[in-house]
Specification:
The chain is mainly alpha-helical. The protein has one domain: Amino acid/polyamine transporter I, CATH 1.20.1740.10. 75% of the residues lie in helices and 1% in strands. It has 23 helices and two strands. α3 packs across α10, α10 packs antiparallel against α16 and α16 packs across α17. The longest helix has 42 residues. The N and C termini lie far apart (73 Å).
């Protein structure tokens, strides 16, 4: 063997030895990781693919918007709107303006939803928009704190109490329909409410597809019900009983600005739910298209139905009948089709409330789940079912709170204060949108709402916060109570969430709870969500790339 061949062999041996040494180091690391991770931990550990499923199509997004908005309000509130506005003409204008307002608010959420791909909606928007100086820990803490305070207020007070009111409305109308129009006992109302709520929660826990199907069915049923009511008004108009209401539509218009404001406030109550588009982001197949079309198709559909139904009320009933009616649709049906209306209309309202409650349960569970996944609530609340990939733990906790409030029953005044508090959060979200226009100029925005729109929404939010407090003295007490619940979340955050003050024993308790409920609920912790804007963009690109948009309908 020549000297050159000997050097080649020796150099080859050296390279091989280096490769072998690297392989041994890698193998040693793998063995160490395998020893540290037990089979049970490996089974329950989150994987990048384990999270909420992307199953919402365009149709499901549109029906979710419709279903989240249309509840019992359109069947009940028209008399209150007319009482404050004074005339049919002004009432119709206010209902139309309510739809325009819902579109503007929804478009702000479309921009935010395209930037922040997180189903927490207000929680995620507040957390991200007020954590704008990433190099300063104080701003990150403030963003997390503000997001936590929203989730604390929404998940544990606002959403359960609002859902309880919706379910009590269902129980009352469903039991009335079953009783042939007679007033049902309170026990029957609550039992019907709890039974229906358990059914809705089970559907939400079973699968997103089943939840979307229930919302689709009830949303279509709602639109058909409103078309039916419109038909009753047309029939009365043909008969000519109250056609003069439409020819003298602006008579007796209220000259008091305060009363008109209260009328518009009642209209906006019936449009509550326009923000629901933000809760569908992580599970939407095509966020860029579906969010925008969900607002542009869903809200005008609701607005058209609302205006037509109000025209039907005014064509079929006298002004005094509308003003004295606690449920305008029921009065119209009874005057048109007799006693059959005492059964038919309550059933329609019951179906409408089922759809609204399904969307409410969906939204509430996503906020609680997302907050827990981010580490701003106890981690156990983020558990997903291994098979269905639904937030089972959040649904259970939300369900227990809602059932408790259904049993209590008398929470209407608390809802008024919490609704006002919700507008505080809406206003902060709109401000946060403008903040990110300056702090995140470099980020790509698939949709960018016209600048005056969020500015207008901020003024409307401030307006809706202070008007009931100024004009309705009782509202001050309830709003003060809701603020106390809001600020009670600060010590909870500092002691149980913030790393600097949280006791170490709390982490140990959380780990034990995780293991117990993982076993009982056949569930696992989800993959960690992206936190920074760069991570969100990267995560979005990856997840959108895994979706077959050709099948998205």
């Amino acid at each position: 063997m020549s000297a050159s061949e000997t050097e080649a062999v020796s150099s080859l041996s050296d390279s091989e030895s280096v490769i072998l040494m690297n392989r041994r180091v890698i193998d040693d690391k793998k063995e160490t990781e395998e020893v540290k991770e037990s089979p049970e931990e490996s089974k329950s550990a989150s994987t990048p693919s384990f999270g909420l499923r992307k199953e919402l199509t365009l149709f499901s997004t549109v029906t979710f918007v419709i279903g989240k908005i249309i509840g019992s309000g359109i069947f009940i509130t028209p008399s209150r709107v007319l009482r404050y506005s004074g005339s049919f003409g002004l009432t119709l204008i206010l209902w139309s303006l309510g739809g325009l307002f819902a579109i503007c608010g929804g478009l702000c959420y479309v921009e935010l939803g395209n930037m922040i791909r997180n189903s927490g909606a207000e929680y995620a928007y507040l957390k991200e928009s007020y954590s704008f100086k990433k190099k300063r820990k104080s701003s990150i803490v403030f963003g997390n704190l503000l997001g936590f305070l929203f989730s604390w207020s929404y998940s544990f007070f606002i959403r359960p109490s609002a859902t309880a009111v919706i379910m009590l409305a269902f129980g009352r109308y469903f039991a009335q329909a079953m009783a042939g129009g007679d007033t049902p006992p309170d026990v029957a109302v609550k039992l019907c409410s709890i039974a229906a709520f358990i059914f809705i929660s089970l559907v939400n826990a079973y699968s997103l597809r089943a939840t979307a199907m229930l919302i689709n069915i009830t949303s279509v049923a709602k639109v058909l019900a409103l078309i039916f009511i419109t038909g009753l008004g047309v029939w009365q108009l043909i008969k000519g009983d109250h056609s003069h209401n439409l020819t003298s539509s602006f008579e007796d218009t209220s000259p008091c600005v305060g009363e008109i404001v209260l009328a518009f406030y009642s209209v906006l109550f019936s449009y509550e739910g326009w923000n629901g588009i933000g809760y569908t982001v992580e599970e939407n197949k095509n966020v860029k298209r579906n969010l925008l079309l969900g607002i542009f198709l869903g809200v005008p559909c609701v607005t058209g139905c609302y205006v037509l139904v109000n025209i039907a009320y005014f064509a079929g009933l006298s002004k005094n009948q509308v003003l004295s009616s606690p449920a305008t649709a029921l009065t119209l049906a009874q005057s048109t089709i007799g006693d059959a209306g005492l059964v038919l209309i309550p059933l329609m309202v019951a179906v409408s409330t089922i759809g609204a409650a399904t969307g409410a349960v969906y939204a509430g569970s996503r906020v609680m789940y997302t907050t827990a996944r981010d580490g701003n609530l106890i981690e156990t609340l983020s558990l997903l079912h291994n098979k269905f990939q639904t937030p089972v733990m959040a649904l259970i906790v939300q369900g227990l709170l809602t059932c408790l409030l259904i049993v209590i029953g008398s929470i209407g005044h608390l809802i008024d204060g919490l609704t006002t508090l919700m507008w505080v959060f809406y206003g902060l979200v709109f401000v946060g949108l403008l903040v990110m226009r300056f702090t995140r100029r470099q980020e790509t925005r698939p949709f960018k709402v016209w600048f005056p729109v969020p500015v207008m929404m901020i003024f409307i939010a401030v307006f809706l916060i202070f008007v009931p407090i100024i004009l309705v003295p009782n509202e001050r007490l309830y709003f003060l109570l809701s603020l106390m619940l809001f600020f009670a979340g600060i010590p909870v955050y500092l002691l149980l969430v913030w790393d600097r003050l949280r006791p170490k024993v709390f982490s140990k308790i959380t780990d034990k709870l995780n293991k117990v409920f993982m076993f009982l609920l056949d569930s696992s912790l989800p993959a960690t969500a992206p936190t920074t804007s760069t991570e969100i963009i990267t995560y979005t690109a990856k997840t959108d790339g895994n979706v077959d948009t050709n099948n998205d309908n």
